[in-house]
Write a structure and sequence with these properties.
CATH topology of the largest domain: D-Maltodextrin-Binding Protein, domain 2
Order of helices and strands: HHHHEHEHEEEHEHEHEHEEH
Strand order of the largest sheet: 2-1-3-10-4
CATH class of the largest domain: Alpha Beta
Number of domains: 2
Helix content: 40-55%
CATH architecture of the largest domain: 3-Layer(aba) Sandwich
Structural class: alpha/beta
Length: 306
C-alpha cells in the first residue's frame, strides 16, 4: 500500500490538481486525499500545503516526493527486469520530445515494438527545458531534444542527427519561382513559427538575427499542424526542419526551398537521466537508436523545392 500512496503523490505533482491526479490513478478524489494524509501520518511530516486547492508541497514534502519518484522508477525497472527474465520485455516507455523531433520518433519506436511486441509507448510533446526537469523528476524515461545547444545539466546523451532547414513559402509568392532561398529571404518574409519557449524557435531566431534583418513574425504557435494551416490559409512562410517533410509533406500551392547550412548547426539526440535506475525499455531504445541511421533522415527530400 505504501507504493500506492507514493503513486498518489507523484500523480499530484504531475497533474497539479487533486481531481486530475485522482482520475489518473483511477480512484476518487477523497480516496487520493485520504491516502496522502495516511502517508503523512506514517512519515510524521506534513507533505502537502493545506488549502482549498492544491498549492504545492512543503519543504519536507518536496524531499518525500523526490524519494517517491525514485522508488517508483526503481519499481518499474524491477518489473521490466522480471519480465525480461521471462523473455517478455514489457511496460510503457515514456518519451518526452520537442515538437521538431516528433516526426522521427516513429523511426525508433516502430523497430522497438517489432522486437518487443508487449512494449507500449507514451509520447508527449514538450519543451527542451521541461524534458530535463521531467527526467530529473522520473516523470519520463527518455527525452528527444537538442543536445549541443542550451545546457542540459547532468544527463547522458545519444546523438541522432543534425538539423537542416527549409523555407516553406507560397508558390505564387515573391520566392515561388526560386529553387532556393537564403536566410535574409526568410527574415524578410511574413512568418509563422513556433513559440519562443521552444528551443527550435530560439535557434531559428538566432539564424535570422545573423542576417541583420528583423524577422517579420505574424503567427506564433506551439503545434506543427497550426504552422502548416497558417502557411496555406494566410499565405505565410515558415522555417522548418528537414525532418518534417517525410511525415507532413509539402502542401499544395507551397514550395519547400532549401536554406543554406547556418553558421552553427544543432544536433538532436536522446537524453537520459544521469542518475537513478536505467530501465530495460530505455536501454532497448538506445540500442535501436545506435542501429538506425537517422543522420540521413529525409535526405532525399532536403533539397526538394516542390
Amino acid at each position: 500500500m505504501l507504493l500506492r500512496r507514493l503513486e498518489y503523490l507523484a500523480a499530484l505533482a504531475r497533474e497539479g490538481h487533486f481531481g486530475r491526479a485522482a482520475e489518473s490513478c483511477h480512484v476518487t478524489q477523497p480516496a487520493l486525499s485520504a491516502g496522502i494524509r495516511k502517508l503523512e501520518r506514517e512519515l510524521g511530516v506534513q507533505v502537502v500545503k493545506r488549502g482549498q486547492r492544491f498549492e504545492g508541497f512543503t519543504p519536507e514534502g518536496e524531499e518525500v516526493l523526490h524519494w517517491a519518484q525514485q522508488m517508483l522508477a526503481e519499481r518499474a525497472a524491477l518489473d521490466q527486469h522480471l519480465a525480461a527474465m521471462r523473455g517478455e520485455l514489457s511496460g510503457t516507455l515514456r518519451i518526452g520530445a520537442i515538437p521538431t523531433a516528433l516526426s522521427v520518433a516513429s523511426l525508433l519506436t516502430t523497430p522497438l515494438r517489432q522486437r518487443h511486441p508487449l512494449v507500449r509507448f507514451l509520447l508527449e510533446s514538450t519543451s527542451s527545458r521541461e524534458i530535463v526537469r521531467r527526467l530529473n523528476d522520473f516523470d519520463i524515461d527518455v527525452g528527444m531534444t537538442y543536445v549541443d545547444g542550451e545546457p542540459l545539466g547532468p544527463v547522458r546523451v545519444v546523438p541522432l542527427y543534425r538539423e537542416r532547414y527549409l523555407l516553406l513559402t507560397p508558390a505564387d509568392g515573391a520566392l515561388g519561382r526560386r529553387d532556393g532561398a537564403d536566410w535574409s529571404d526568410a527574415a524578410a518574409a511574413p512568418l509563422c513559427l513556433l513559440t519562443p519557449d521552444m528551443q527550435n524557435r530560439r535557434i531559428i531566431d538566432g539564424h535570422l538575427a545573423d542576417t541583420g534583418t528583423e524577422a517579420r513574425v505574424v503567427v506564433e504557435t506551439d503545434t506543427i499542424s497550426a504552422i502548416y494551416d497558417h502557411v496555406v490559409s494566410m499565405g505565410l512562410s515558415s522555417v522548418v526542419p528537414h525532418t518534417w517533410l517525410p511525415s507532413f509533406g509539402v502542401p499544395e500551392g507551397i514550395r519547400a526551398l532549401p536554406l543554406p547550412r547556418p553558421r552553427r548547426s544543432y544536433q538532436v539526440g536522446l537524453v537520459l537521466a544521469g542518475h537513478g535506475p536505467e530501465s530495460l525499455l530505455t536501454r532497448a531504445l538506445v540500442e535501436v537508436a545506435r542501429e538506425v541511421d537517422l543522420s540521413e533522415v529525409a535526405g532525399s527530400t532536403a533539397g526538394v523545392a516542390g
